[in-house]
């Protein structure tokens, strides 16, 4: 398409809106239909992030040539392993696959092969890689995206929501085919296959260490005792959110946690007087919230959390110039080379080599230094072979011949114009 082209609105599924599958007998018919059809399978899932606890799927959409579109309610039929089994060896087409694979695995669906249309768009250097923009720019159709943030745990689901969900897989296979053609044309199909295989083979993500450190506004907390208040309130909230199957932010906003940590109320009445705890729902749980604060107050210094999260990597690059000027020079030189390679191949830099991988290698390069040694370092950090082939030699050369430390610029903003 060109900028002057007008996209065609995609308003209805071509085969009509299917009924939502809510029972085992209907599911068996769908399994049979999808098993007898051929070709890739378009797959999508709708969650209720921001409304419910966790990231489970509340609607699963599939489409396959010869089988049509299916909408499945995984709350009514939570075991979809039979469907997953008949589709396991087929190629699954997903958009931003890593967002959906965990909730699909929960109901027994896990692909052996996949095609990620968002990642394909990134490898092609396309400026906008959301599903709507990709369908628009590549296929010339405009998707309605008005219900992406809806509460998909709602029952019954409104018809316009279901139509939106069905349309999300309506053109996914056609989009896959068009993107594959572009990947072949640009010589990037093998790169894409490596990326897709890595996503499909990735283990389920381990729970994040110290998840409470992601509390919005944590930067305002300057001492360990107050950090303990944040931690205790975060876990108290998480327990209640899990019990109620509600998003934690709907149980207690992050701002209320931060304000309690800054104020450090000494009594339940003092906490109840805080504006963020005056609401009826917060007063009902006041003993829980004040108990968390009291627990933090009673902790010994040894029990308090460290000011910063444990981290096994190098310090922030802004500190390198004074602490390790040689490392700063290596990083600046290597980063410039990686940017050049990315631009030459029309790739986002972060899809060529992750910043963390490059920083770690620059901070503590292998000895003796060689292209092969750098390749091994990158491989140990999860880099794919196509990424290594493009970058290892250039990075090794940059490490061996960096600019003088005084001239190396690491994370230094450009001078202001004027």
Automatic annotation (TrEMBL):
It comes from the Bacteria. Its EC number is 3.1.13.5. It is an enzyme of class 3 (hydrolase). CDD domains: RNaseD_exo. GO terms for molecular function: 3'-5' exonuclease activity; nucleic acid binding; nucleotide binding; ribonuclease D activity. PROSITE patterns: HRDC. Residues 223-303 form the HRDC domain. One of its GO terms (biological process) is nucleobase-containing compound metabolic process. SUPFAM superfamilies: HRDC-like, Ribonuclease H-like. InterPro entries: 3'-5'_exonuclease_dom, Exo_C, HRDC-like_sf, HRDC_dom, HRDC_dom_sf, RNase_D-like, RNaseH-like_sf, RNaseH_sf. Keywords: Hydrolase. This is Ribonuclease D. It comes from Jiangella mangrovi.
């Amino acid at each position: 398409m060109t900028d002057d082209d007008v996209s065609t609105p995609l308003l209805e599924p071509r085969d009509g809106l299917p009924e939502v599958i809510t029972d085992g007998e209907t599911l068996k018919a769908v399994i049979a239909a999808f098993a007898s059809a051929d070709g890739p399978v378009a797959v999508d899932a709708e969650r209720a992030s921001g409304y419910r606890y966790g990231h489970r799927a509340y609607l699963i959409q599939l489409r396959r040539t010869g089988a049509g579109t299916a909408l499945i309610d995984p709350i009514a039929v939570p075991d979809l392993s039979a469907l997953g089994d008949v589709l396991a060896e087929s190629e699954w087409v997903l958009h931003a696959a890593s967002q959906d694979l965990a909730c699909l695995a929960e109901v027994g669906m896990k692909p052996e092969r996949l095609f990620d249309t968002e990642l394909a768009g990134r490898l092609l250097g396309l400026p906008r890689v959301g599903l709507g923009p990709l369908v628009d720019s590549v296929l010339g159709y405009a998707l309605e995206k008005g219900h992406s943030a809806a509460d998909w745990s709602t029952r019954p689901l409104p018809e316009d929501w279901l139509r939106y969900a069905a349309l999300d897989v309506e053109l996914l296979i056609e989009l896959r085919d068009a993107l594959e053609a572009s990947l072949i044309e640009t010589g990037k199909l093998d790169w894409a296959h490596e990326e897709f295989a890595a996503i499909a083979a990735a283990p389920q993500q381990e729970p994040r260490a110290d998840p409470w450190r992601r509390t919005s506004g944590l930067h305002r907390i300057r001492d360990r005792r107050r950090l303990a208040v944040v931690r205790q309130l975060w876990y108290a909230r998480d327990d209640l959110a899990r019990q109620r199957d509600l998003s934690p932010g709907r149980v207690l906003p992050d701002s209320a946690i931060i304000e309690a940590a800054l104020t450090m109320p000494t009594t339940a009445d003092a906490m109840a007087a805080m504006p963020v705890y005056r609401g009826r729902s917060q007063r009902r749980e006041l003993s829980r919230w004040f108990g968390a604060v009291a627990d933090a107050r009673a902790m010994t210094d040894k029990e308090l959390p460290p000011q910063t999260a444990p981290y096994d990597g190098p310090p922030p690059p802004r500190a390198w110039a004074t602490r390790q000027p040689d490392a700063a020079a290596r990083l600046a030189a290597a980063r410039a080379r990686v940017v050049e390679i990315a631009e030459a191949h029309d790739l986002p830099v972060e899809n060529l080599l992750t910043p963390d991988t490059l920083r770690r290698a620059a901070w503590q390069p292998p000895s003796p230094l060689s292209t092969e040694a750098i390749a091994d370092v990158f491989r140990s950090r999860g880099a794919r072979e196509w990424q290594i082939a493009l970058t290892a030699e250039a990075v090794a050369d940059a490490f061996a011949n960096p600019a003088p430390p005084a001239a190396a610029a690491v994370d230094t903003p450009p001078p202001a114009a004027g």
